[in-house]
Amino acid sequence: xxxxxxxxQDRSFNESSWAGLQKAEExxxxxxxxxxxxxxxxxxxxxxxxxxxxxxxxxxxxYELAPATEKAAKANPKTDFAIVDETVVAPNVxxxxxxxxxxxxxxxxxxxxxxxxxxxxxxxxxxxxxxNLFMDGFVDGVAKYNQVHGTTVRAxxxxxxxxDGVFTGDFEDTAKGLTVTQNLIDQGADVILPVAGQVGxxxxxxALAAGHVSIIWVDNDGYDxxxxxxxxxxxxxxxxxxxxxxxxxxxxxxxxxxxxxxFVGTLKNGGxxxxxxxxxxxxxxxxxxxxxxxxxxxxxxxxxxxxxxSTPK
Length: 313
Known about the structure:
Elements: H1 13-28, H2 43-52, E1 57-61, H3 66-75, E2 80-84, E3 93-98, H4 100-114, E4 119-124, H5 129-149, E5 154-156, E6 158-159, E7 164-165, H6 174-186, E8 191-195, H7 199-210, E9 214-219, H8 222-225, E10 234-240, H9 242-254, E11 263-265, E12 272-274, H10 286-301
Parallel strand pairs: 1-2, 2-3, 3-11, 4-5, 4-8, 8-9, 9-10
Antiparallel strand pairs: 6-7, 10-12
Helix pairs in contact: 1-9, 2-3, 4-5, 4-10, 6-7
């Protein structure tokens, strides 16, 4: 596996992807190794090094690695490749992508339902389809809550119609996350969804300091992956089941059933979802929890279609 420039302990998709290969190592006797990219200049050399090692399966993580993955796959047609959160079209590359808008729709509805100020917010690390997808679903979920309840909860930080919003410019600088989140709190937001990898820890710090603000984590369950001091402010998390997807695809490479057909995680196949409410369960009424569960059932059944320009195909 080759990480993107966010590093391995990003509390996001690098960490979850590596957990998937570790699962494959334990369950299917697959020897796994990770090459950590600390900057953009590491990306291509690390992919080249992975291929040169003679391994049969190379996993790359994130859009930054798409060019290097495509080039290496073309030059090494007998090696199986997969890429997380990006699509590379090649006979030997399997995209691993997630329709996170479906799950963040539920999170937006939930956020609107628990907000005391009538204002919630989201922001991203940079504007790219996998990030914008979360934000599209979130603001649509807030709009659905307003439609159902006749409320006017505001969603700051993202305009779906303009496909533009608030971004920190990277996925590593937690200080930027703190500053952006404090600005959103100053505008009244009391539930905030950071879609920004490690930057999100800065959002958690600002929320904790504010004392009345909660956050919604992404990719994995922030209640488990963030430092324990933040557990009391994690409302829920928008989950991507990257671990199981990666483990299964690695196994398929070993047993020669690998294909380049994209894996698309949805609510229906368990590839995406939302976490429990943990320490903040008391802030979620039984009625609201039931409404969120019903929305999930309607999305799975196709009665509600969550649409985004970034929806994976």
